[in-house]
């Protein structure tokens, strides 16, 4: 192996240069090899920088596309074409989930997961609005199971009850509303769930149980707009079937406008 010259205290730059030329003339191969290695390192560094730049550009484009599709999907009109709205939601969610898989460690991925969850919920709502009740019910159920602590989970659980109502299964709907009342005690949906329990009893012609349910809403949820709705229902049922104390009838007398047909 050829000896590589080293600086010594007595060396001058000129002497060192002369030594290098002398060694190169004796055995130029190590110098060519060293130069080749340097060139390869430079090429690899350039390629790495280009790839990094491309990766950053891909990330930026993927992020922008995901965000644009998210907002476009949520703002597209449901009234014109619900089927197209559902397709927009599905495509946006698929794009966002691809972003999450591609960039799992990026800080923006945290927000993308939130976007994906929102789209999942909205997709279930859209399915329900499109009369695809079975799929909507299953989508809401999956949402509740996957995101037990999400802010929309009480609403998703409540919506399961509504799908049962639409399918005509009043007992299952009522059970689900009771679950909402028991499980989400801090939710603003508790009063509405209580009101809907009364509605399910009415649908089964169990008017006494319905009146008791409405009375419970009136007595326990003073600040809820569902108290007024319960008063309307209770007043009308009292007018038809009686058996409710007179003070309750008087308190509701001025608000009978009819949610019952």
Order of helix and strand elements from N to C terminus: HHHHHHHHHHH
Shape: elongated
Structural class: mainly alpha
Q: Which blocks of ≥5 consecutive residues have pLDDT under 50? A: 245-261
Question: What is the CATH level 1 assignment of the domain at 169-261?
Answer: Mainly Alpha
Rg calculated over all Cα atoms? 36 Å
Average pLDDT score? 78
CATH architecture of the domain at 169-261: Alpha Horseshoe
Major sheet characteristics: none
User: How many helices does DSSP assign?
Assistant: 11
Write down how many β-strands occur, each being a DSSP E stretch of 2 or more residues.
0
Overall helicity: over 70%
The N- to C-terminal Cα distance equals: 102 Å
CATH superfamily of the domain at 169-261: Tetratricopeptide repeat domain
User: Which fold name corresponds to the CATH topology of the domain at 169-261?
Assistant: Serine Threonine Protein Phosphatase 5, Tetratricopeptide repeat
Report the β-strand fraction as a percent range: under 5%
């Amino acid at each position: 192996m050829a000896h590589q010259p080293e600086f010594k205290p007595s060396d001058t730059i000129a002497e060192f240069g002369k030594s290098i030329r002398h060694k190169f003339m004796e055995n130029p191969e190590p110098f060519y090899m060293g130069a080749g290695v340097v060139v390869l390192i430079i090429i690899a560094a350039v390629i790495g920088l280009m790839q990094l730049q491309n990766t950053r550009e891909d990330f930026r484009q993927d992020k922008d596309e995901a965000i644009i599709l998210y907002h476009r999907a949520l703002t597209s009109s449901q009234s014109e074409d619900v089927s197209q709205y559902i397709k927009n939601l599905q495509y946006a969610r698929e794009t966002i989930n691809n972003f999450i898989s591609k960039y799992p460690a990026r800080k923006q991925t945290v927000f993308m997961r939130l976007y994906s969850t929102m789209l999942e919920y909205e997709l279930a709502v859209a399915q329900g609005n499109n009369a695809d009740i079975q799929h909507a019910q299953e989508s809401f159920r999956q949402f509740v199971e996957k995101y037990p602590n999400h802010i929309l989970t009480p609403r998703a659980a409540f919506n399961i009850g509504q799908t049962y109502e639409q399918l005509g299964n009043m007992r299952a709907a009522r059970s689900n509303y009771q679950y909402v009342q028991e499980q989400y005690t801090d939710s603003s949906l508790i009063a509405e769930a209580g009101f809907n329990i009364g509605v399910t009893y009415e649908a089964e012609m169990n008017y006494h149980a319905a009146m008791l349910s409405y009375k419970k809403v009136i007595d326990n949820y003073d600040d809820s707009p569902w108290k007024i709705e319960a008063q309307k229902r209770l007043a009308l049922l009292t007018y038809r079937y009686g058996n409710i104390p007179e003070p309750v009838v008087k308190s509701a007398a001025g608000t009978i406008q009819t949610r019952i047909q």
